[in-house]
From TrEMBL:
SMART domains: AAA (SM00382), HTH_XRE (SM00530). PANTHER family: HTH-TYPE TRANSCRIPTIONAL REGULATOR RV0890C-RELATED, REGULATOR-RELATED. This is Helix-turn-helix domain-containing protein. It comes from the Bacteria. Gene3D superfamilies: lambda repressor-like DNA-binding domains, P-loop containing nucleotide triphosphate hydrolases. CDD domains: HTH_XRE (cd00093). The lineage of its organism: Bacteria, Bacillati, Actinomycetota, Actinomycetes, Pseudonocardiales. It comes from Pseudonocardia alaniniphila.
Length: 763
């Protein structure tokens, strides 16, 4: 402990003052007092020493001893003028280096160092949420850019500065500029720096933003001065460039977690259960390096699986050389939220009910504020890096809270406020689903799918909220509005779980039909027998005294589509005839398209070639007129089956390549299963058994992942025969290798295989 630290502690305890009481009297922060007494901050600024002496009521002798205990300028980091006229930092006292290896910032360091060479914007501010690593990045940049600043680099730590008026004195102290007593300290600093190429690092600027005028004056008066600052929010001056410091991606987070856990003495084994737990902990930290550091330290003590069960780090797990405000995520975020206005704090707490992100309408709905106040509050949260602006998704701006921030905000939301916010979110999600219903069933389908997928976390919250609060009819409507999205994007099992929860509830007749239609759609390819039964129940209810034409058409079409799986041809023909009659009478292009596709499936089941060709072309025509990616891809798959049965494998390959491209555009993992199996058959027929085997492997992987029945009745025999053919052509060992490769293939690789098969067919 330094002489100054010991003397300060002795004077404080002699006067029976706590650190907090001394901080209040001296108008500095309690963490600043603590850092000084622990010796973590060895050279306080002169104005800080004066404030402490005044607060302690020291006599002249005591005051002199306290001042004398501060290290002299010749051993401090203060800059000095050399014989060459340059301001330099002594060679024996360099910028602090990161205490541990920094992972995942190399590219950003290089980019920022390059940007510092541009003189038109001499102020650069690194912004981002607390714990994202702004200070670490600034120190790396400053070290890497040393050669660009021959006059030196000066670090000014502002976290312990209480007010904006203390910033310039802190800069002057760090530079070694004497206070001449003229009152123009900005001018004195500007005169001292002059034309020297100097880098000034201002760390933690967010709570002293009114200093921006002085900063602007300095860079205006000193043409070679560059300022690199860090903060939750930028200064917003014309000379400034803002660089957002983003959280780490998942793979980098896992690398950092493992490195820190190992450095703390933890055993980072190759056990898959530990690997899964680490991955989950990293997702929980949402890429914040501080959260990862704290979790890794805790995991080094109790193991990642045990930590995952508690999802919390022991309070003393943080490294003790971190600043006090960074020894827990709670302390870091408390520091951030204290800087907010009351409306922004209120909105932040209420936004914690949003999971996975939100839109501006969502934010306004949960806020309980007027539109104008909500706008300003959201702007403030983005400015302070507590809310991240994700960007445009499907023509709509989206935002999100990092998961540690969301959980911290939720702790400041009382029960009544939480209920009010969730009610607002519920109304917003319902409104969005209603507004997107037409697009989801038409040419705007891909955009609607992207928007609904982006809001999936909130959809889950809202459906649970509606069911738990007995708003069963609203829940049935919402599930009916979004079932197609859930099915296409691979969430059919989850959707069926909500349907099962609603099934025993007392619903209105319309809600009961909607629920059965949605449930049938969700189970269409997973449990087709149950889906056929539910859709026929819905059809019976919809054709009662108060017939609902739209719901009756939907139920009839779903019943016809799922009847194919029963292989009961008379039943299927009767249902498809009713589906076509109702769809044509309703005049809805979406359900006309599905009725035509059901007709094609029945024709395939019957095996009459002329009917198959005509039905498949009718389905493709209807789908292309509709303009929806999912239906067009499904219709093209049916046409490909018809072409393959007719021996036109080259035509089938082209149709399937286009259908898979459409599946990629819609991120359709639902019917992609059947496209892959059909293309696998075509590949084998075209003499490429290796591609066929890989596609068959991918087919089974997608079927298992999404709960889809593998054996589609109309192609089952083809698939079974050609799997055996590919195995014979390749040999069992080579076939198994290709099959496993296909099971592990990503979407990009499958698209490449599809195009390869198509190109082989063309040539």
């Amino acid at each position: 402990m330094s002489d100054f630290a010991e003397l300060l502690r002795r004077y404080r305890t002699a006067r029976s003052l706590t650190q907090g009481e001394l901080a209040t009297r001296a108008h500095i922060t309690q963490k600043a007092v603590g850092a000084l007494e622990r010796g973590e901050r060895r050279r306080p600024y002169p104005h800080t020493v004066r404030a402490l002496a005044d607060a302690l009521g020291l006599d002249d002798d005591e005051r002199a001893r306290l001042v004398a205990a501060v290290p002299r300028p010749e051993t401090s980091t203060a800059a000095r003028t050399t014989s060459s006229g340059l301001v330099r930092i002594p060679a024996d006292d360099r910028l602090p280096a990161p205490a541990s290896p920094v992972i995942g910032r190399d590219d950003q360091v290089e980019a920022i160092v390059g940007a510092l060479r541009v003189p038109s914007r001499p102020v650069m501010t690194l912004t981002g949420p607390g714990g994202v690593g702004k200070t670490t990045l600034a120190l790396l940049v400053a070290a890497a850019a040393r050669e660009q600043f021959p006059a030196g680099t000066v670090l000014v730590e502002l976290a312990d500065i209480r007010g904006a008026d203390d910033v310039v004195p802190a800069i002057a102290s760090a530079l070694g500029v004497p206070d001449t007593g003229t009152g123009d300290l900005v001018g004195a600093v500007a005169s001292f720096v002059g034309n020297r190429r100097l880098l000034l690092v201002l760390d933690n600027i967010e709570h002293v933003l009114p200093c921006r005028a002085a900063v602007a004056t300095l860079v205006s008066a000193c043409p070679a001065l560059t300022i690199l600052s860090t903060g939750r929010t930028p200064m917003r001056i014309r000379a400034e460039r803002e660089v957002r410091v983003e959280p780490l991606d998942h793979d980098t987070s896992v690398r950092l977690f493992r490195e820190r856990m190992s450095a703390r003495g933890g055993c980072v084994a190759g056990d898959q259960r530990d690997a899964d737990a680490i991955a989950q902990l990293c997702r929980h930290a949402d890429g914040l390096p501080l959260a990862l550091e704290l979790a890794a330290t805790a995991a080094s003590r109790i193991g990642p699986r045990t930590l995952l069960q508690t999802m919390d780090a022991p309070p003393d797990s943080a490294p003790h050389d971190l600043p006090t405000r960074q020894r827990s995520i709670t302390a870091t975020l408390d520091w951030s939220t204290r800087l907010l206005t009351e409306p922004a704090r209120r909105l932040l707490a209420r936004l914690s009910v949003c999971v996975g992100g939100f839109t501006w309408p969502d934010a306004q709905a949960v806020s309980g504020l007027t539109a104008a106040h909500a706008t300003w509050a959201l702007t403030e949260l983005v400015e302070h890096s507590l809310v991240i602006h994700v960007g445009d998704i499907g023509g709509e701006e989206r935002f999100r809270l990092l998961e540690p921030i969301r959980q911290h905000a939720a702790e400041h939301l009382d029960h009544d406020q939480a209920d009010d916010a969730r009610t607002g979110l519920t109304n917003s999600v319902l409104a969005t689903a209603r507004a997107l219903a037409r697009d989801l069933h038409g040419a705007g389908q891909v955009t609607a799918l992207h928007r609904l997928e982006a809001g999936l976390g909130n959809l889950r919250v809202v459906l649970d909220q509606l069911i738990e609060h007995d708003r069963d009819d609203d829940a049935a409507e919402l599930l009916w509005l979004v079932w197609l999205h859930l099915a296409i994007r691979g969430h059919a099992r989850e959707g069926s779980t909500w349907a099962a929860r609603l099934h025993p509830r007392a619903l209105t007749l319309q809600s009961r039909i909607r629920l059965l239609v949605a449930w049938a759609g969700l189970e269409h390819l997973a449990a087709p027998t149950d889906a056929c039964r539910r859709s026929r129940q819905a059809l019976d209810l919809a054709t009662g005294d108060d017939e609902d034409e739209l719901l009756a058409t939907q139920a009839a079409t779903l019943a016809a589509s799922t009847a194919v799986f029963s292989r009961d041809l008379p039943l299927a023909r009767g249902l498809v005839a009713e589906a076509n009659r109702r769809a044509d009478a309703l005049g809805d292009p979406y359900w006309i398209t599905h009725a035509r596709m059901a007709t094609t499936q029945i024709a395939l089941l019957a095996g009459h070639a002329p009917d198959i060709e005509q039905a498949a072309r009718d389905a493709e025509t209807a789908a292309r007129c509709l303009g929806s990616a999912f239906e067009t891809g499904a219709a093209l798959n049916l046409r490909a089956v018809a072409a393959q049965l007719g021996g036109r494998n080259d035509e089938a390959a082209g149709l399937l390549a286009e259908s898979i491209d459409l599946a990629v555009a819609a991120v359709n993992s639902w019917t992609l299963t059947y496209m892959l199996s059909t293309l696998a058959v075509v590949a084998v027929r075209l003499g490429d058994p290796d591609a066929g085997a890989r596609l068959f492997g991918a087919w089974t992987a997608y079927a298992n992942a999404h709960g889809v029945v593998e054996d589609f009745p109309t192609t089952h025999d083809l698939v079974t025969r050609d799997i055996d053919q590919a195995r014979r052509d390749l040999g069992s060992d080579a076939f198994d290798v290709a099959w496993r490769s296909g099971r592990e293939a990503g979407m990009a690789e499958l698209v490449e295989i599809a195009r390869k098969v198509r190109d082989q067919a063309i040539h």
